[in-house]
Specification:
It contains 4 helices and 4 strands. The protein is an alpha+beta fold and about 120 residues long.
């Protein structure tokens, strides 16, 4: 049984495999958060690549992209046969406990180059 003493899923240890890598039974960020981070990091990323990175199906990825677009977190722009994603980092988090914060703060934590909010050039030296 899951969650009982001695069960590897009860302490956050990997519980399943996909593509040869082990996945934990839960993560801090939801799949929606992971998809948002993926499109913020690579605006030209393909659906299949997002699905692979997040560890979900293509169908689940498309559903999440639709959710994010309908809520205003992303815009999908068609460029020929390719899709480009634009993320609105000024949107607030949806949960009431975090709704006074913008998702750009989360995106900045996970980005290599500061694209959202304040950059080093904006501050006093």
């Amino acid at each position: 049984m899951s969650g009982e003493a001695g069960d590897p899923t009860s302490d956050g240890e990997p519980s399943s495999t996909r593509g040869g890598s082990r996945r934990p039974s839960w993560t801090i960020l939801t799949n929606h958060g992971h998809v948002l981070l993926a499109v913020a990091a690579e605006p030209h990323i393909r659906v299949e690549e997002i699905a692979h990175r997040v560890g979900i199906t293509r169908r689940a990825t498309l559903s999440i992209l639709k959710d994010l677009e309908e809520a205003g977190y992303i815009q999908r722009l068609r460029e020929g046969r390719r899709t480009t994603y634009r993320v609105d980092g000024d949107r607030p988090f949806r949960h009431p406990a975090e709704s006074d914060h913008e998702v750009g703060a989360l995106l900045q934590i996970f980005s290599e180059a500061p694209r959202y909010g304040r950059t080093d050039d904006d501050g006093d030296r």
